[in-house]
Model the fold of this input.
Amino acid sequence: MPTKKTDTSTEELKKKVLENEEKHEYQSSKFKKIEDQVTWALSRQATDDALRDVSIWALVVGSSDVHYECFETYVVVRFRIDGVLVDIFRLTHAQYKKIVERLKYAASLKLNISNIPQDGKYSLKIDETKKIDVRVSTLPIHYGENIVCRILDSAKAVIDFEDLGFFWTSKRMLERAISQKAGMILVTGPTGSGKTTTLYTILNKLNSREKKIITLEDPIEYELEWIVQSEIDDKNWVTFESGLKACLRQDPDIIMVWEIRDYNTLNTATSASLTWHLVLSTLHTKSAADTLDRIINMGLKPYILASALDTIIAQRLVRKICPDCKVEKEKSPQEISIIEAMMSEIWMKWLSSDNLKLYKWEWCSKCNHSGFKGRMWVYEIITLNENIKDLIRSWWSVEEVIAEARNWDLITMKEDGILKAIKWFTTIEEILRVI
Ligand SMILES: [Zn+2]
Done:
């Protein structure tokens, strides 16, 4: 049975990937340089410089978040690079105390409170033309206060539409979806799957002076020109539901509501879609199919869902193979089996896997000895065409919907990833690590 063979191959390879992942360590001479700069700045009481150095280095190595984690005798500074946490250096508790005080002051947090979580934001000027925002959140733990700083680099918030990584049928599906005047488009995936960038890039593509685009966010992460951005404010009763109703009274053409968390928001967003608005939003679900299940479980009637929802985009971020140290490699029997199973699922049996190349990496300094540099998205998209809508309106099961979507070019996230691996953007191991 071909399916059984693939399952075994996938399982075996995935196990190997996860084992190697634990053993592998990022290394870079840059990390020592960061440590030296920061500790030197702290030794001369230049805490501002120390924080600036950390943020600039985080930007240089392509990190989105800086984590400070307290242990009994030391504090570890870690960067999230291409989605993976990497230890950079250690601080003493005395050194860390200076950093905490300065961060709290900059982000307008209460300096004398260390036993409850706090969050705030500050701006950092990098040079004459570049400014970044840093979101700071604290969490009291047994050995002190852990801090995570999220670096909001607006240069990376909106990317070129083509760089989103929608290829093949998914590109056609997305272009059709966003060319519509009304309907709901849901982007789904866990935290850190790049939903913000996808939504902001779509909004940017739709942005024109003839249309009114309003967003409701939590909080506003990046400012977008010509788009009306609002944010929820629990203290003043601006929730996703009440905020969305207020946005609708502003005569919008397109609405982006950051997240659908409850039935009332879902219901208001659905009504907006049915009253001739294009509605974009996100849901925390694993796959496109899961999304349908979740919406029905939230209490929306299937016939309303079928009329209001147009497209579901499920996504994950995977690391791109480092272009500076990639080399061609022999395909393993498991990889051949995975590729062939994917091809038969998406009716590409005619293409022989013999001619396909795969790459592996040799470590180099450009990728901090990780083998990867930058990230890209993998997707699965379901377009709710009339056949699928009919299935949803009548009694349906997720399996039936998926089977029908297969007839209309559905490519699963894993298949999209494997296609991207055989196009040399990434590796099959990386796809199995993430999905
Ligand atoms: Zn490299």
Notes: The two ends are 23 Å apart (CA to CA). Residues 156-434 form a domain with the Rossmann fold fold (CATH 3.40.50.300). The pocket of zinc ion is lined by residues 322, 324-325, 361, 364, 366-367 (CB under 6 Å).
